Amino acid sequence: PSGPALLFVKISQGKEVGRRFYACSACRDRKDCNFFQWEDEKVSETRLAAREEYNRSHQPSFTHGQNVERYKDFVLLPLSKRRFCQECQQLLLPAEWEKHSNHEFLCDISTAQLRSPSQLLYPLENKKTNAQYLFADRSCRFLLDLIIDLGFSRVLSVGTPRLHEMIQSKASQEEDFRVRSLLLDIDFRYSQFYTEDEFCHYNMFNHHFFGGEGALETCRKFLCQDNGERVIMVTDPPFGGLVEALASSFKKLMAMWKERGKEGHNNQEMPIFWIFPYFFESRILEFFPSFSMMDYQVDYDNHALYKHGKTGRRQSPVRIFTNITPSLIVLPVEEGYRFCTICQRYVSSGNQHCEICNSCTSKDGRRWKHCVLCKKCVKPSWFHCDNCNCCALQSHTCEKTDAGCFVCGKAGHKRSTCPSLSRT
Ligand code: SAH
Ligand code: ZN
Ligand code: ZN
Ligand code: ZN
Ligand code: ZN
């Protein structure tokens, strides 16, 4: 149901070669999708037929096209007849009230509510991969202002429904607002609020357009319009997602933009904001060496990862990774960011420039300290451990340093993050 599966590898202790299998790209919890198939497995006709039947029965009850028609009817209704079923997460037409009579519903759905579907729909909480964390208004506005200041006029919103809706909402209300957005998201509920030119049902773990060739073409057109100029992609994937799978899809979207023909802008890359926690920095840079991580802390309305910092302001671990020149990304001084003239980028106020590293080294906004033995800056809570020959928390248990990666044998990572493998 989520489109093509991904190929994973299962490693068992003591074996050199892992066994490869296909599993759902979007659902990492087997409870949500139990698709499983060994790479070398023969699948019988009956099983294939059963699968197809299963996929058919797991289609949404209305197509995107039908939802667009329903929306047109819905907005013609007087306020008193505009209902939204909370159980089915669906706009209801009067003829359907009966069927939902024992469901909870909201009435008097206003135009303003229709313009902010992310407020109307409940955030999906589907554990790791499908959890929806919505931008706090402050962060969403910061992103949009930044996009405008940088001169972009089209935003490919990949898994950023709230940014999309802020853009759409302004576009429908302010005459001189010129920015447009196309939302790509796996959450099909949004098809009730947007036309096929505004929303594509999309899986960012396998670059699958559920709407087929037509939807792919919509996306291609959006990217390549005006010779691909002034377009930026903004994405905020679920943090449990595989970086490798995401990177592969984003490269395909970038390639779509690159194909826009005409003049030679060969080495250019489509501008991107990839919003993700700072501890994924090395993973992201592995796939996108041209990216750098900004210090800006992206805030959410409903995020469990929040800690409250000294200042009472929330400390969020979520950052913006971008291939735009860092000095152009102006961070708000009133929120404590300052410009480091040596690094040529805005940094957190607590992020001190280290003379030895010649860089503002803090990743989490706190002031880090330089360790001469490690030859790098480390978290303020860490101390150099002579046993481990590296810095760590005082309370850590010393590990053998010669224990390399179980898969490739190299030191510095565990098998779960071995770059030579897809992770299971
Ligand atoms: N901060 C963003 C929301 C990020 S939550 C905002 O406020 O706009 C992650 C988003 O990615 C959700 O909208 C979710 O529906 C979407 N998503 C989750 N898995 C996806 C997948 N496999 N493909 C595409 N979108 C996905
Ligand atoms: Zn699935
Ligand atoms: Zn600096
Ligand atoms: Zn240093
Ligand atoms: Zn050290």
From TrEMBL:
InterPro entries cross-referenced by the UniProt entry: Mlase_EEF1AKMT1/ZCCHC4 (IPR041370), ZCCHC4 (IPR039846), Znf_CCHC (IPR001878), Znf_GRF (IPR010666)
One Pfam family from the record: N6-adenineMlase
Compartment(s) where it occurs, according to its Swiss-Prot or TrEMBL record: Cytoplasm
A single cellular component GO annotation: cytoplasm
Keywords: Cytoplasm, Metal-binding, Methyltransferase, S-adenosyl-L-methionine, Transferase, Zinc, Zinc-finger
Superkingdom to which the source organism belongs: Eukaryota
GRF-type domain ranges (all copies): 1-42
Protein name in the entry: ZCHC4 protein
Gene: Zcchc4
